[in-house]
Write a structure and sequence with these properties.
2 copies of one chain form a homodimer.
Chain A lengths: L6 H8 L3 H9 L6 H14 L5 H8 L4 E6 L5 H16 L3 E6 L4 H13 L4 E4 L7 H9 L4 E4 L10 E5 L2 H13 L5 E6 L4 H16 L7 E6 L7 H9 L6 E5 L1 H13 L9 E5 L2 H4 L7 E4 L2 H17 L7 E4 L2 E3 L13
Parallel strand pairs in A: 1-2, 1-3, 3-4, 4-5, 5-11, 6-7, 6-8, 8-9, 9-10
Antiparallel strand pairs in A: 10-12
Helix pairs in contact in A: 1-2, 1-3, 5-13, 6-7, 8-9, 10-11
The structure holds a DNA duplex.
Protein name (chains A, B): LacI family DNA-binding transcriptional regulator
Organism (chains A, B): Skermanella cutis
GO molecular function (chains A, B): DNA binding
Chain lengths: ~350, ~350
Amino acid sequence: MQNRPTLKDVAKAAGVSNITVSRVANGSGLVHPDTRLRVEEAMRSLGYLPNLAARAMRTNLTGTIGFLVPDLTNYPNAAVAQAAERRLAEAGFGMLLASSALNPVREAKALAALQTRQVDGVVLYVSDEADPELLTALRRFKTPLVVLDRTLPLNAEVDSVICDHATAMREVVRYLVQLGHRRIALLVPELRIRPVIERSTAFRTAAAEAGIAESCATVVQVSAATAAGSVPALTLLEGPTPPTAIIADGNRLLRGVILASRSLGRAMPADLSVIGIDTDDMALVCTPEITCIVRDFNEIGQLAADLMLRRLTTQAAAPQQVILPSQVVLRSSCGPAPRSSR
Amino acid sequence: MQNRPTLKDVAKAAGVSNITVSRVANGSGLVHPDTRLRVEEAMRSLGYLPNLAARAMRTNLTGTIGFLVPDLTNYPNAAVAQAAERRLAEAGFGMLLASSALNPVREAKALAALQTRQVDGVVLYVSDEADPELLTALRRFKTPLVVLDRTLPLNAEVDSVICDHATAMREVVRYLVQLGHRRIALLVPELRIRPVIERSTAFRTAAAEAGIAESCATVVQVSAATAAGSVPALTLLEGPTPPTAIIADGNRLLRGVILASRSLGRAMPADLSVIGIDTDDMALVCTPEITCIVRDFNEIGQLAADLMLRRLTTQAAAPQQVILPSQVVLRSSCGPAPRSSR
DNA sequence: CTGAAAGCGCTAACAA
DNA sequence: TTGTTAGCGCTTTCAG
């Protein structure tokens, strides 16, 4: 079985030297049009494809970016990854994907695996902003980093794409208060990451501003390991003074709320108002359709790729933080608080 | 900025030759325990990570597998990709991800991009089994291929993971017929791929066997470009003799059916019975919960990775085709056909 | 505009 | 058990 043709084979076929083929392959340097044509012809007829591993040895550039994500089956992550991949591919870059299953140890390991493969940079979601091992690994990291929606205590500033979670959260709390709700709960995953922290803080602040007692604006942290997402929602709804509105962060928790309210026979929105965060993909198939806080995942992924490409091409450039908005999409899952609750 | 330490640096630090370090790094060859310890110590203190690009030049092995997928935002694809990535990572392999947006031209290009990066093999879903360019690219491909759920006319047999779509489809048609349905529609994406073909065929056959006239067992192919998935469902339901049961292949089309039936005021399952295929992720949040044909995506991804790893380690091995089952999960979205339809 | 020589980091083959 | 030599495919430098 013959091996793939190399640059040398092309050179021989075209009757030129290796370096000339290299110049044609890279579009670099000046090559006589006739020569170029001859070389290109040889490349085509041999089916030549450059060997990036070999090129990487000289240039230290693999044309490959690492993408580290906690969980690909989570729609937002997948959408961001796909958008980034697309942008990178358009620019001639490949994407090495690593999924960490929300495990910081795995994240540190994946980082090493990516470095070993000589990625030119890494775009990443981390699943714990305060994990010391992970932070050490990150600080040791030599190639450019684009951090997605996290606040990381790194020495050097890095490029990052972050989202404004507070504005939409405040808006949504005010909306619920206007509808008469006085007992509201926020369900979030138990993760030390920016979106959860910012949402929780904004939730509490907005509730306080609206004159809701601290004990009536509950933030429930749900362990990522809790298989049945409906358990915390059930606990909440079966308590002595159940919330009349629940905001659920992510598909898993929204599903939990829907299942819990269904099993308890609470009607939506008559008995319970529901709002989902980052759950737009399932909002329309629910009955009633779910009011959501949404973000443009496509934009996040593209921007992350763009930041990475910019850093790779223009070395100097000051680190950049891009802030993207969240939006509230009103649908029919919220209504006036039930009379009995007021 | 100092460069990453190389094997040579480690050798110097440990006072041994390059090759000894290499042997320690690969666990290969016999090395004296003391020497090994000294080398490992040097590696650790320097923070040495091997350069896989350099290794690849000698061995022609990058420890990286390509994964080509039409659309990552589609839950089944993401789940399979993640499962494969996990298995590969456990075995020390990286995964280069390429997404084709259902475009065969892109798929051929992505294949070249993967080859250029010297992947040791490629696991792939193609989006058109009959695209000549893609087939040519595939035939030219030198490294191992694991084909996911496609019937490809390739010269050489390749490893593949395929699913049985027919059995579950027959089961589901019989179930609907038993419930009294005599006009049934199947909504599928307009794609020349095994799952769609096998499902359509099984659907027609099962309907015929159940004594349903050909004109009453409709297969509607929906272009992947049709943004509003509800349009074909609306057309169907507003026709003169609308189906009393619809089977929808994939989230997009299931969503279309739900939106259409909602906007027409058809109750589920009283007026319309609905079954989803590969839609288990949204089945429970719907009201009523949706009866689904499901598959174990995790198993598909793991198996694909295993087949690839096996092929990489044991050269000879005859190509293997693993067939995985589909299952029907009954829920409450199907009921007796409405009286008026009989 | 084109080429010759050297070397990137690593390992296969052989030698000691 | 350890080391030496050579070279993978490519690009950088310097000469022509």
